[in-house]
Amino acid sequence: MQIHEFSGEELEDVASEFFMPAIARARPDYRGRVAFQELDAALALTQWRHRGQVSVVRTDRMAARASADDLMLFSVCMAGQSRVRQHDRFVDLAPGAGVLNDTRSRYEWGSSTETRSLTLLFSRELLPIRTTEITDCCARSMDTAAPAMHMLSSYLNRLSEVADDLTGHQRRNAGRAAVDLLAMTLQDVTPSVPGADDSAGVLLDVMRTHIRKHLADPELRVEELARQHHISVRHAYTLFERIGTTPGAYLREQRLLAARTMLSNPRYARLAISSIGAAVGFLDLSTFERAFRRQYGTTPAGWRREHLHHSGPLP
Q1: Is the peptide bond preceding residue 95 cis, with omega within 30 degrees of 0?
Q2: Cys-Cys crosslink for 77: which of 93, 257, 263, 305, Cβ 3.0 to 4.6 Å?
Q3: Statement: residue 20 has pLDDT above 60
Q4: CA distances from 22 to 5, 56, 66, 93, 224 (A)
Q5: Could you list the residue ranges forming a coiled coil in this record (predicted)?
Q6: pTM score, two decimals?
Q7: Which CATH number goes with the domain that contains 208?
Q8: Residue ranges making up the domain that contains 94
C-alpha cells in the first residue's frame, strides 16, 4: 500500500496519480492523505482523507481524453459530508452513502468538512451491466439502510485493512468480488426512481426504455413521447424530474452515449460519421458534431481517432 500526505498545492498532482486528472481547488489550511492499494490491473482501492474546504472538477475535455480502460469509480463516504455532480445530477453524501461515477463524463466533487472515503477504481468491462444501465446508475443516491449497500461498505472497509496481507492472486479475486458485490448493490439503484413501485415510477421506466429502443427515430421528441404514452408534455417533464433531468436532456444523453459506443467499436470503423449520427437520431451532421463536442469536448472524428482500438480484422 502506498501512503501519501499532501497539501492543497499538491492536490492536483495527487489526484492525477491516484484518482484521475482533474482541476482541484483547496483552502490554504487544507491537508489530505491517500492510501493506495493496487488489487489488479485497472483495479484498485484507495482511502482518502480531506481536512479543509476542497473542490475537484474533471472537465468535459479531460473526460474526452480518458484512457482506453474506461475507469469507473465507486466511493463510500465513511465520515463527513460531500456533494457529487455528474450527468446533471447532484448527490449529497453522508456517512454510509455510496455513489458510482465514470471517468468519461464531466465530474464535480466538493466538501467543506473533514471527510474520509473509500474509492474502488475499476475497468468498466468488469461490471456485468449494460453501458446504458451503468450510466443510469451514475450519480444516484444509494440507500445506506439497504442490506446490499451495508454489506458492500463493510467489505470494502475490511478489504482495505487486510489487502497488504493477501497474495497478489488473492487481492485480484477480492477486488473482483467487490465489483460483483457492487453489481448486486446497483440492482437496488436501477432504475433509481423515487417511488418506482407506484404507477408514475413504472410509467417513467417504460418511457426511458422506449427512448433507448427508438434512438434512431429522428421524430422522437418530447411531444411524441408524451403522445405515445397518453400523457401531457407537462406530465412528462414532471416524471423525468424524479431522476433529475428532462425528457429532452435524457434523449440527447442516450443518443450521444450510443454514438460514443459506436465510434469506439471496430465493427463500425468504416461507417461514416454522418451515418453514425443518423443511426442514433441526428440527421444533420453539424447538429450531431456540435452536440457531441459540447458533451465530450471533442468531435466525433476526434473521439474515434483517440479511442478506436482494432481488436481484429474489420468486417
Answers
A1: no
A2: 93
A3: yes
A4: 18, 6, 11, 20, 39
A5: none
A6: 0.62
A7: 1.10.10.60
A8: 2-186
Q: Is residue 192 part of a domain?
A: no
Residues 203 and 101 reside in one and the same domain: no
Q: Which amino acid is at 32?
A: G
Percent of the chain with pLDDT over 90: 32
Instruction: Examine residue 14 and state whether it is found in any structural domain, yes or no.
Output: yes
